[in-house]
């Protein structure tokens, strides 16, 4: 079977510090994988390696069967959503969504089609002419998701996209991300330190500690049969 994303014997060192250690991870087409673990365990580093924002020290990354270990981020077929929204402050929402497509030289009517589809899916149609400063945190994060959506990529990467939001918005947007996945059926790799997010969103959860995956399984199995005290303690403690 061809995997959507395959990570083979991946290691990353910052100087002498081994941040990721011989990681292997195979992700199926359309699977929602959550990387879960406490701050500093290497979740963002792993995501940034997959995105091509960091060079690996050792190992290989395959996306759609292609070895992308040394490909540019823009050539990997991924879209990334960060914790901080990283929108262009001087551009309207419409411009924020279309900018990358314009730069790539896409035809105007195709750009319009994609922007209106993303606006419809994320329910941000009425906001298209606003600037980011005039949006709420939740609305900004929808626009950030929209920027990945218009690119029509196979793989979405999320790095703690809800961490800056208050509890109510966090649960609303969590439901929406789940709905988005059910509609698009693309592969999603989602980083969080929040057990509830992981248990409610994931098809499978990879619980990480010190740059190593401790357990990779469904929420049901992780919750009911943690492989060790670390996993049990982390899943059982409130976030
Ligand atoms: P997480 O996202 O799980 O909180 P990170 O992937 O950000 O963890 O960080 C993993 C480890 O790597 C941490 O110990 C962090 O201090 C270290 N680290 C992250 N980025 C750098 C960097 N640019 N240089 C040196 N160490 C780093
Ligand atoms: Mg992080």
From TrEMBL:
Record-annotated membrane-spanning stretches: none
MF GO annotations: ATP binding
Keyword rRNA-binding: no
Record domain ABC transporter: where: 5-235
Keywords: ATP-binding, Nucleotide-binding, Transport
Family: Belongs to the ABC transporter superfamily.
Name the UniProt record assigns to this protein: Sn-glycerol-3-phosphate ABC transporter ATP-binding protein UgpC
Organism, scientific name: Devosia rhodophyticola
Positions spanned in the full protein: 1 to 239 of 364
């Amino acid at each position: 079977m061809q995997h959507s994303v395959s990570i083979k014997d991946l290691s990353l060192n910052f100087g002498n510090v081994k941040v990721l250690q011989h990681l292997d991870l195979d992700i199926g087409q359309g699977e929602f994988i959550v990387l879960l673990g406490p701050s500093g365990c290497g979740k963002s580093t792993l995501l940034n390696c997959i995105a091509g924002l960091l060079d690996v020290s050792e190992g290989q990354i395959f996306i759609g069967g292609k070895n992308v270990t040394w490909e540019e981020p823009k050539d990997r077929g991924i879209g990334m959503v960060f914790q901080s929204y990283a929108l262009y402050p001087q551009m309207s929402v419409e411009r924020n969504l279309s900018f990358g497509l314009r730069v790539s030289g896409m035809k105007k009517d195709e750009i319009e089609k994609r922007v209106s589809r993303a606006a419809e899916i994320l329910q941000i149609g009425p906001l298209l002419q606003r600037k980011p400063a005039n949006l709420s945190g939740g609305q900004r994060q929808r626009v950030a998701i929209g920027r990945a959506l218009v690119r029509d990529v196979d793989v979405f990467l999320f790095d703690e996209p809800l961490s800056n939001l208050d509890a109510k918005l966090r649960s609303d947007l969590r439901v929406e991300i789940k709905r988005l996945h059910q509609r698009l059926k693309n592969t999603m790799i989602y980083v969080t330190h929040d057990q509830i997010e992981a248990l409610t969103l994931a098809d499978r959860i990879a619980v990480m500690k010190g740059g190593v995956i401790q357990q990779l399984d469904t929420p049901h199995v992780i919750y009911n049969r943690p492989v060790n005290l670390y996993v049990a303690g982390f899943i059982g403690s409130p976030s």
